[in-house]
Amino acid sequence: MKIFDYLESHDYEQLVLCQDNESGLKAIIAIHDTTLGPALGGTRMWTYANEEDAMMDVLRLSRGMTYKASAAGLDLGGGKSVIIGNYKTDKNPEMFRAFGRYIDRLNGKYIAAEDVGTTETDMDYIREETEHVTGITVSSSRGSGNPSPSTGYGVYRGMKAAALERFGTDDLAGKTIAVQGLGNVAYHLSKYLHKEGAHLIVTDIDKERVKRAVDEFNAKAVDPKDIYSVSCDIFSPNALGAVINDESIPQLKAKVIAGGANNQLQTEKHGDILHESGILYAPDYIINAGGLMHVIEELHGKFDLNSVLDNVKTIYNNMQKVVEISKRDHIPTYLAADRMAEERILSVKESKKAEDKLLIAQKNGIAK
Looking at the annotation, which residues are catalytic? Predict the structure, then answer.
């Protein structure tokens, strides 16, 4: 992997490697773009096959955060971090304190939050070393707690908007929805779907999570390898990324793809294939932005859940805007979402350039 070529081709700002012998910390922070504000993104802990996989994951995720914040209308940039290790066996408090010290050296350019494999308690340990972290426990001085319920609600709202476009109604009662992955986000999503009367088909590598969904939501469980081929109206990926690929697409029977996982498309060509096949893809960073809306409320110094949920409701409208751009420009929805996000970033960049030119001119006595 030619790392500088990759950073240049996607206009990344910074890549930070972090290690601490005493705690076993091996981490990577990627900052993609801070045009709109400080880069906020979760800290993922995962057992990667190799270091290159970890680096590619954090790079892709950080870029997605830039687009997510921009499309959601938030004054935040895009960043992400990964800690290499098994979140069930390798964690220790000093690991997260050491990581917090690395974050603090960035002077607010990157703000951490919880993600796959990390918890509110982990964020509390980071908070002991830096103020540049969100999603700390509610019992803490200004904590907002786990953002997963807000993320799940946003995915639900985005799914309803996609259903309206594809089925002519956003009523999900009676619809069959295949839910891949049953982590915190998918659990809360499934609660909303069950309450509305949807029929759930679920899978997860964690059998306890599957049992909970079967017991609480009257869901039908299938093996992870069979989830793509089940008969359903909506397929909802909520595990790791790249699940929409050459192998999975031919199996899909759904008319809509709407889930909380990041980077669901393995490559852009797979978004093109979905579009050509008449499958409506709800771009992941458009509909899973609820967690970001949740933690930014914490950054404002106070936390009001009702205010957060009001903001998360707008994901419905954002998904509708993506559909409108897709139709207007005759492009797949993933490109329409990118276009919406990029236009806002470009506008702010141009505005900042104009301000910088004016300041230079004023300094040189050319302008007043």
Answer: 80
